[in-house]
Fold this protein.
Amino acid sequence: MVLDLFAGPGGWSVPLSRWGIREVGLEWDEWACKTRAAAGLLTIRTDIALYPTWIFSGRVLGLIASPPCQAWSMAGKRLGLLDQPLVHQAVTDLAAGRDTREQLLTACRDERSLLAAEPMRYLHALHQSGEPEWVAMEEVPHVLPLWRQYAAVLRGWGFSVWTGILNAADYGVPQTRRRAILLASRTRTAAPPAPTHAAVAEPETLFGPGRERWVSMAQALGWGATDRPVPTVCAGGPKTGGPEPFPSGSRKTLADARDRGTWASRQGSGLVLASRREGAGWAERHGTRENRPAHAPAPTFTAEAHRWSWSLRNNNQSNTTVRSIEEPAGTLFFGHRANECVWEAEAGDGSAVESIRITAAEAGALQTFPADYPWQGTKGAQFSQIGNAVPPRLSAHLLAPYLGRTLTRDDFALTA
């Protein structure tokens, strides 16, 4: 089997499931476990720090780990930053077969910090029986010094190891998500996967295949197609649910996809809304003489009329990342109200700026989860799962060489 520590909703699991590889995920979060169950993924809900390691001896082909990163994260209260030396000490001790976690935990500012050392507890136990064959670990960039410590131990055990920072956008993920990666193998030379995409498209040469341009949010969400709707959102909508048309704030839904707005290109401004039906208030705010009811045909805006350029704002903080719809998103992260991602649209004449929250389905698509992935839990729980997950398209590229798989351009194609 493949053992997935801190499995979350299934970022590593999606490609493994498609390849028919047996994976067992260990996860504590209730809603992540329910999402995994709805997706048909085998999961043990447990506290990884307490679960016995001997039970897996003789059964593990590969070990995956994406532990919590409080000790290295730049977000939140950052109490864990002071715990980094304690985490390093825990890894050193566990690699030598000494379990000093209880003593070290009493000195930690954040009780979650030592979870980053848990993979070494499993690795040490499995190493006694010559397992696993390969290891893959992922976390925020600041965890790289810890991965290098892991790498030194694994090399001493006969592994080939590579550590470094990879950008998910270089592998077809519509998000410039940078992560610290560790790849290790007993049977082959560990190395990062060859990038398939670049900020600027690169043609094929005598030295190898070319690289496609980074996948944009518009491509990932299908907003460039004439038969696809513009963004909608349930948050803030009617109590009974359902989409809320943007940007009027109307509680009326778009009854027929044929009446929805379509995207049209305009040089220098990205994708813009060419036409759509809106509810009360649109005419008064945007100059349309006739305020059409929901059942009437959609008004058509000419090139000289109000057009909207769209972007995604990652949070409401002063240093927020704002990206055009024609670019990949910045790193998606949630868990606090300040980290809510919103779509923003600005009228072509600068007369108005409107915004709506991103939906879980849209955020999941930007993480390259399947469009119909069965997210479970409250909206907050769903966003937290999505933000913490490994993008499945990135994990597929990381795992493929160690599982004898060759990815083609059509594998794990983005659909929405």
About this structure: Residues 144-156 form the longest helix (13 residues). Residues 226-306 have pLDDT under 50 and may be disordered. The CA atoms of residues 153 and 392 lie 28 Å apart.
